[in-house]
Amino acid sequence: MSTPGSPDNDQPESIPLVEPAGGTPPVVTQPAELRRAAAALAAGHGPVAVDTERASGYRYSQRAYLVQLRRAGAGTVLVDPVALNDEVDPLIEALAGTEWVLHAASQDLPCLAELGMRPSKLFDTELAGRLAGFDRVALGTLVERVLGYRLEKGHGAADWSRRPLPREWLNYAALDVELLVELRDALETELAEQGKLDWALQEFDALRDAPTPEPRKEPWRRTSGIHRARGARALAFVRALWEVRDSIARERDVAPGRVLPDSAIVDAAVAAPIDEAGLVKLPVFRGRAQRRLAGTWARALKTAAQLPRNELPDPSPQQDGPPPPNRWADKDPAAAARLSAARASLSALAESLRLPVENMVQPDLIRRICWNPPADIDVDGTSAALRAGSAREWQVGLVAELLSKALHATPSE
Fold first, then answer.
1. For an engineered disulfide with 68, which of 51, 253, 367, 386 has Cβ 3.0 to 4.6 Å away?
2. pTM of the prediction?
3. One domain for residues 224 and 371
4. CA distance 310 to 329
5. In what residue span(s) does the HRDC domain sit (predicted)?
């Protein structure tokens, strides 16, 4: 097995894996087929490799358009939940109580949950790779470095809502679960040898039990390039166009950027054309597709232009949490000193443990504690603050004492 951080040129030549050992199975599209596949999975043994394919960048929804599963004794199963009208109860029953192995589970768990599929136990190979100290943790990279096989890749960003799915895409999808359990076993061994297995298990449980994130209060503020829209009125233009675009994208089930790019929204907000004729002179809006919607965009801009001042968005909304760290020295020198000391000690510890510092403890939690320390900044008080911020016990045990010392830091004269 490749050791974490070892140079790639020390690796033996990898073996290309261009198709699954048992061939690419047909896609399950009928209830009777699903019941047979579920029975085979239930009769298998050991963990179940699970993956999904979505149509990000093409569709508004983040639903699963294909679910891939593999278990020893059962082989690989490819399920089309769309064809099954998302009725996958036999699959849910077959997987009850099993350990699921996913790579980058946070990307797949939400769309699986939409199908009613939730793991009883979880092993995330990407997260395991990070904790084990591997510098690159993409699935193909880990499989090559740890197991010595080179996966056929290249269709992850495809439009998986397309039907029928091309054979080469299905081959790619099946390969994503072909060696996932073997990778899991190798990484478990590596973590155990490093004394990190319990840390990983705590992380997997936290990931499995993580609550669904609350929707953002003002999602339009994440429009790419919005910093160019200066002033409340320009921001109102961004908001108006973003909200109309979102409504159209949701109705059509099309990715918002395919309805209107963020760059075009910001261009219109900056230029602030007074009518439809002015709008269609702008790049993107002069295109044939946008001309059909020009009246819609122009009406949104007109409505925003007529808003009274008290209905305009705040150019500097109150942030949930501390200000950006680059402002701390001016706003609160003592907090800046605490954060500087914490970052230095935590970075050194993370390096010694071959851990990404962000996996050792959430940087946002450290910033919040340094900005607003607990009343008691001894180890017990600091531990309580970490737990209140959802730090796991292994994290508390590692960083509480170092963070407590950092909270005693004062600005240098």
1. 51
2. 0.93
3. no
4. 33
5. 231-311
CA distances (Å), origin 161, targets 91, 296, 347: 21, 28, 43
Please check whether residue 39 is in contact with residue 73, taking contact to mean a CB–CB distance below 8 angstroms.
no
Question: Quick one: 12 and 79 in the same domain?
Answer: yes
CB 150 within 8 A of CB 16: yes
The total number of structural domains that make up the chain: 3
Residue 153 Cα to chain centre, angstroms: 20
Does a structural domain hold residue 269?
A: yes
User: Residue 404 above 60 pLDDT?
Assistant: yes
Confidence of residue 304 (pLDDT cuts 50, 70, 90): very high
Q: State residue 243's pLDDT score.
A: 98
Same domain, 200 and 281: no
At 157 the pLDDT is 87
Q: Where residue 188 sits, what CATH number does that domain have?
A: 3.30.420.10
259 lies in which domain range?
Answer: 219-311
> What percent of the chain shows pLDDT beyond 70?
97
Domain assignment of residue 1, yes or no: no
184 and 36 both lie in a single domain: yes
CA distance 81 to 155: 19
CATH number at residue 348: 1.10.150.80
